[in-house]
Specification:
The complex is a heterodimer.
Chain A (H helix, E strand, L loop, with lengths): L2 E3 L5 E3 L3 H19 L3 H23 L5 H34 L3 H4 L6 H33 L6 H27 L2 H26 L4 H4 L1 H13 L9 H5 L6 H27 L5
Antiparallel strand pairs in A: 1-2
Chain B lengths: L15 E14 L4 E14 L3 E5 L6 H8 L7 E6 L7 H4 L2 E4 L11 H11 L4 H14 L15 H12 L6 E4 L8 H16 L3 E6 L11 E6 L2 E7 H9 L1 E7 L4 H12 L5 E5 L2 E7 L3 H11 L2 E7 L4 H14 L4
Parallel strand pairs in B: 3-7, 3-8, 5-6, 6-7
Antiparallel strand pairs in B: 1-2, 1-4, 8-9, 10-12, 10-13, 11-12
Helix pairs in contact in B: 3-4, 4-5, 8-9
Classes of the chains: A mainly alpha, B alpha/beta.
The structure holds adenosine-5'-diphosphate and magnesium ion (MG).
Amino acid sequence: MSQHVSQHGLKLSIGGPAAILARVAAIVGNTVREAGRAKLFYGLLGGALLLLAFSVVLSDLALVDQKARLVQSFGMAVIPLMCVGTAILLGAVLLHKEIDKKTLYAILPKPIRRSEFILGKLLGLSTLLLAELAVLTLCWWAVLVLRGGELTAPMLRGMGLQYVELLLVTSIALFFSALSRPVLSGVLTTGVFIAGRVTYVINDLLSATKGVFAEVPAMRALGKLLVAVVPDLGTFSVSDQILQGWEVPWTYVSAATLYGLSWAAVFAIGAVLLFERRDFT
Amino acid sequence: MTQPAEQIVDPSRGPEILRLRQLSKTFRVGFWATRVQAVRDVSAVMYQGESIGYLGPNGSGKTTSIKCMLALIQPSSGKIELFGRSPTDPLARARVGYLPESPYFYDYLTPVEVCEYVGKLYGLDARTRKQRTQELLGLVGLDQAAKRPLRGFSKGMLQRIGIAQSLMADPDLLIWDEPLSGLDPLGRKEVRELMIELRRQGKSLFFSSHVLTDIEALCDGVCILDRGVAVAQGRLADLLRRDALESEALLDLPADPQLEAGLRAELAKIPGLALQQLPTGVQAVLPTQAVPALIQALMQGGGQLRELSARRDSLEDLFMRKALQRSDGGQP
Ligand SMILES: Nc1ncnc2c1ncn2[C@@H]1O[C@H](COP(=O)(O)OP(=O)(O)O)[C@@H](O)[C@H]1O
Ligand SMILES: [Mg+2]
């Protein structure tokens, strides 16, 4: 059933978890390779490194005991942002490129499900982003040490949370790129990202006693809708709390991870549903 | 006119591997979502070991229906069975090798890497992949370029890598979209020979072509499309033999208008005879068995027979006739 033996005795494993995994792995491999060739990727990586170098210069202006602190907060803010940029741009372009260059037409007719293809793209991009985040974190660590600071366990956990956010943004990007053309899907993803980053602010405003969100009913409804349909990305940005000495306990990390992965799954499933209905003419 | 698929079932044939049931596809284009009917109610069936030519001019709907067979496109209505399954089932597609129309692959990969990748998608193990890659790149004559990135490959070379990857998993059915187009004469000859060899090995071949010449030797059966409609299908021998039973004659009619009218009236009584004015004279196309009646009518009516020959239809004649019938026959 799950295996097919060809006319000349070749064994094809088609069904079953191992076969599915092998196919997804093949897509992941090719995606990493393709995305890893993109000039865009190296541009963003180079930009992030430049910004880190800039933070060193900037920290010269700071008070002696504030130097490491500045590098620390700068890194925690800038590194994830640069990776999010990569996720949004590559996520918007990757699927479209396969359609545009017609490479998809040779791949989808193979015994592979469209869901496996999307999963492969998602995991491939995630792998690349993990590499980017790791490289940048290493450089950041070097700069921190240079400025008399250190990379603490809470800071590492904080970066881990940022990676969960990256996974989520990647699946949002794939969702929109299964839906529309690259520019629009990039814009939409950016929109959701920004909205997600500020939902906690809106939440605060909603529960305040004064202000437009508290007092104007239409704004209140809009705010509530936004809070309901957009994942709260503030969950994954804890650098301020870390600076104030918060330990980022594992209970928080696991709850936030579960939250992020659930949302990522929602968007990934949405991407698959959209992608499965598409005609590739 | 169009034979219903059910009528050509023949128990001596192998198992059914592909069936189209009233396949239709309508695209909506532009701001007003104008309907373009690319494929209309095409029914066909194919058996193991057969080689079927899917023929028709550009834009007749070949690629669209082929993409439906591979689940790249969802039919608007109708159904496709591939090895008794839906084309969306990977197990059905596992037995198919598809060559896209003007194939494209990742241009940063080498032929070896393309084959490896495709082999993985078919669930072949590493050793088999390596062995098949080597065999197939040799078969299509790409062993010299095996480790060069596809960027910079000519169209003919891309077609070769397309063919190699379609054969990777030793599929039972090859679905090739325009395998002969875009090749130079030598390349065409090589691909034709490969197709004949694959057929000899017992592979089933479904291929499309917009060029009707020089493919007669490649197919047992044809399905001819015209503007999305299957206008003729069946075994090539049957389709063309029927036309070998026709004759064509070149006539001289009497110069006297009254005699001419009389003779024309006599000729019109011969069943199945059609007259056509050619620059060289009047041509009559008629069933071969009616030739004696024609000669008799000519002798009595003062006409002359200048030429008489059996009508050997080519695929092109067949297509032209069917397409004309359709335009005249009041079908939209
Ligand atoms: N994506 C599409 N949108 C609109 N019309 C299309 C699309 N793809 C094909 N068509 C139309 O469908 C018809 C059949 O095209 P196609 O299947 O490519 O023909 P063939 O392969 O026989 O040359 C053509 O009229 C073509 O313009
Ligand atoms: Mg075509």
